[in-house]
Design brief:
CATH topology of the largest domain: D-Maltodextrin-Binding Protein, domain 2
Distance between the termini: 61 Å
CATH superfamily of the largest domain: Bordetella uptake gene, domain 1
Helix content: 40-55%
Largest sheet: 10 strands, mixed
Strand content: 15-25%
Radius of gyration: 22 Å
Shape: globular
Number of helices: 11
CATH class of the largest domain: Alpha Beta
CATH architecture of the largest domain: 3-Layer(aba) Sandwich
Structural class: alpha/beta
């Protein structure tokens, strides 16, 4: 009986190894939890195109927007764990929503197998050109002198722009007024005409206004300066030591996907991220390749989960 069990287990292990070696034998779908055209979608399409070459099977991007990324995340989490459904996760779906939404239809930690962290894209702190402060320290000084009088915009409660501003006001010990909008466009419109003094935004989304002189960039939120705005300091350089936030993108699979398949996708993605053409395409989106191991990505998700929990609690953020 014992010998039969050993033979059975050995057969299962050999079958799993063989399955991993044969994978993939059909197209793979990559679920993006946001609409086409945004930063998440752009990064996904760059990676999917090159993974198609590396894995010798078509990787198709499937946009599943809704509920701040929860619709796409749930769809990926509930998929068969066979490697043929992947998920492009980020700070919103894996760190913010789990701390902000009381009844999510998925568990950000338990329902996914992290594969690899792909890239990081910083945000930028911009002000209306007619606003007096010309650097971060002048902004902080004015906000301390006039508490509760400076307004900052965001594209909604709990958005990345809102959280970036909460981190800023908390670290600098400032009292500024949050004005949430229903999307970036209306927030940007009011900022451009001076109804709002400042906001944090995705760098790529707001770069044309900065280059045209319609907005003034005070700092970026990464730990290193952005190649797209090399003359603009980081918030860390500007005096807020340790400040870092922004968007990050990573590949995940449904929980239960075999490690053989995870490794195959991981290794193929590392090959993709090493390509000069891919690095240039990501740079054009304001994103910097990260790579690393699957365990590194798992640790990153856990750390971001805890960090966003602290930011949301500190800012007493609630969604409507």
């Amino acid at each position: 009986m014992i010998i039969q069990r050993i033979i059975f287990l050995a057969f299962c292990l050999l079958s799993a190894a063989s399955w991993g070696q044969d994978f993939p034998v059909k197209p793979i779908r990559l679920i993006v939890p946001f609409s086409a055209g945004g930063g998440n979608d752009a990064v996904a399409r760059v990676i999917a195109q090159q993974l198609t070459t590396q894995l010798k099977q078509t990787v198709v991007v499937e946009n599943r927007p809704g509920a701040g990324g929860a619709v796409g995340a749930e769809s990926a989490a509930r998929a068969t764990p066979d490697g043929y459904t992947l998920f492009l996760g980020g700070v919103g779906s894996l760190a913010v929503n789990p701390n902000l939404v009381s009844k999510l239809p998925y568990d950000a930690i338990k329902d996914f197998e992290p594969i690899v962290l792909i890239a990081f894209a910083p945000s930028v702190l911009v002000v209306y050109p007619g606003f007096a402060p010309s650097d971060v320290q002048q902004l902080i000084a004015l906000a301390k002198k006039e508490p509760g009088k400076i307004n900052y915009a965001s594209n909604g409660n709990g958005s990345s722009a809102h959280l970036a501003a909460v981190m800023f006001t908390s670290m600098a010990d400032l009292d500024m007024v949050h004005v949430p909008y229903k999307g970036l466009a209306p927030a940007l419109n009011d900022l451009l005409v001076g109804r709002i003094e400042l906001m944090f935004s995705s760098l790529v989304a707001i770069l044309p206004q900065i280059q045209a002189g319609k907005l003034r960039a005070l700092a970026v939120t990464s730990t290193q300066r952005s190649a797209l705005l090399p003359e603009v300091p980081t918030l860390d350089e500007a005096g807020l030591k340790g400040y870092q936030t922004g968007s990050w993108y990573g590949l995940l699979a449904p929980a239960g996907t075999t490690q053989a398949i995870i490794k195959k996708i991981h290794d193929a993605t590392l090959d993709v991220l090493a390509l000069d053409s891919v690095r240039k395409q990501l740079a054009s989106e304001g994103a910097e390749p990260i790579a690393g191991s699957s365990s590194d990505f798992a640790a990153h998700i856990q750390a971001e989960f805890e960090r966003m929990k602290s930011v949301i609690r500190e800012g007493r953020i609630q969604i409507e």
